[in-house]
Specification:
Elements (H helix, E strand, L loop, with lengths): L15 E7 L5 E6 L23 E7 L2 E8 L3 E4 L1 H8 L5 E9 L5 E10 L1
Antiparallel strand pairs: 1-2, 2-5, 3-4, 3-6, 6-7
Length: about 120
Amino acid sequence: MSFAGGLRAQTPLAPVHLSARRDAAGNLTLGWIRCARASADAWLDGETPLDEPVEAYRVEILSGTQVVRASDTTTNALAYPLAQEIADFGARQSQLSVRVRQRGQVVALGLAGEALLAV
């Protein structure tokens, strides 16, 4: 028996549990949990294995459906300084719409994890 999963089988899964934390200075740290396609069904505590040669993400900040800022990071977190937030929106926001995709080797951008976060 053979199986041909195609590109969908090689597409990085959407990150989950998107979060945002604002510090005393008003700066935000966005975070998420990586998901994996292979060897990721263990019931023990520990970090999810990495399916790709390197850990990398594309993070998009949205205003409605329009991307106002796109950034790349090699960790499961991104700093979003208050100065950038004000440049993007004109004022500090109480909610932030965020989209995160893991970068892949075969499929450039994986499935999106999206959330409207209270900040």
